[in-house]
Please model this.
Amino acid sequence: MTQTNFIKTNQSENRTPNATKNYYNKSEQETIQTKGNNESLAIVPVEVWQPDTNQKTLGIRAKTNALAEDLAALRSNIDVRINQLQSLIETEGAAAERAELLNEITSHIRESLNLKDIFKTVVEDARNALQTDRVIVYQFDKNWKGTVIAESVNSDWPKALGAEITDPCFADRYVEFYQKGRVKATADIYKAGLTECHISQLEPFAVRANLVAPIVANGKLLGLLIAHHCSEARQWIESEIEFFQQLATQLGYAVDQALLLTKQKAATQQAQKLNHINVQIRKSPNVQDILTISVEETREALACDRVVVYEFDSQWKGTVIAESVDSNWPKALGAEIADPCFADRYVQPYQRGRVKATENIYESGLTECHINQLEPFEVKANLVAPIVVEQKLIGLLIGHQCTGPRTWTELEIDLIRKVAVQVGYALEQAYLFQKQQAAAKQAGFLNEIGIKIRNSQRSEDIFDTIVEEARSALRADRVILYQFDADWIGTVVAESVDKAWPQAFGKKISDPCFKKNYLKSYLRGRVSTIENIDEAGLGECHIKLLEPFAVKANIVAPIIAEQKLHGLLIVHQCSGPRKWQESEIDFTKQLACGSLIYRAMHLVARMTYNSPSASRRWR
Model:
């Protein structure tokens, strides 16, 4: 049986605390009247009160814990916000510093027109601004192969300056993107999906992260500005990327300005050089002086290893007739060079003024034959301009680089073109001067011959005078008068010959082809010139007629009087082939076809008539 506690209370004290009143039921209360004192006892069943831990207390604790967690989360969030704010303040401060530094760098690089100084300033200042391990300038050649031409690097890491790096994929994949101003930020080269080839190019320089921005000048992609982080991977932030892009852009502007001013300066210097060359080559009317001055001055202006003048013969075979060459390289003066392809492929382009610049003879598609012609002179690169006189291609002005391949600039190409043109003008004037001198000299010779003929007392002396004076004037090895008979068989009736060569006087020569092949043309006044009998396409029988007299070159002019071909005036060169000058050909023609020999023939005829016993060497 459950024990019930009883509490004695007064009516007025019978109060149930709010905290416990709900635990009692009025029906369970019993009132007991006590006899004797009219007091009543209320017998109330009482239970000992205990907190309900499973409901209300736990609820309060849960709320307290939740509140604590919320407070902790709020505090954490506040800490994050504070950190973010601090980071933002630092970032904004760094960005402001970089913006200020960008202005300073821009001012520095605009102060110089020297590209080397500009690049050096940029890489050093950029590395300091980004607090990275290396910054380089990577320059492209025309084939998109690159060379590191400027570098600032922490001493802990490998140097890249001078490194030549070829990316076979660059031209196809990246040129267009970088041309448009693309900037590439790589936080970790091993997690960026780079090709193995690309990674292998970066590993020798210990690169872990990089930042690449294009250098564009005058609308052309010249190279890349590249930052390397080597110590670890690095997440490049937006302000750093923007700073680097702006720096590369400013570098492009500076390069553009420097190149423009450098080009203007170079153009001024070139004009001065060209003017100097023009003055020098016009100082002398002598052809050889003009050529010598031209090669010397051009080599100095181009700063190359050799400059030559290469003269053509009638078959487009060439000879080096003037040269200026550095003492370290073989001499080419006097070299005879025959290019079997020249006449078919190159005459017309050069005739039109073409200038050919070859940067590397082994990478320019030259034929093996052509390369074999250049190798004896150790040529690695060349520059070729035509020399044209009176609209005729007479030769080439050629610059050689022997130390290695060379990229010829537009100004250098333009310089040799203009020098070659001026050489052509100077030679034209020199040839005209020579022609005038030769004409005056020839007129003097002809006048002297006429006087000697008139003063001759013997008929045989008349023709001897003609051939002797002609050989002296032409400086030839032999001059003969060759008289035809009625059957076109010829006899040498007069000769002047150097003692080193066979005599032809008195020889009868029968050329079975003469009447058929040559008579009509000689009657029309044709003058034949052969510079080399072995290369003139002569028939075998013709060559056999000349060989006994050791003939290597000749001039043949007809002796015509009263519309009749009486004979030939023939000039022989025996010592070797000879390029006959127009003045020499003209002199021979005047002597043969003019009135001089005709008058001599009449004089001989009178002498023969008046003195039948006189020698009749021309009948």
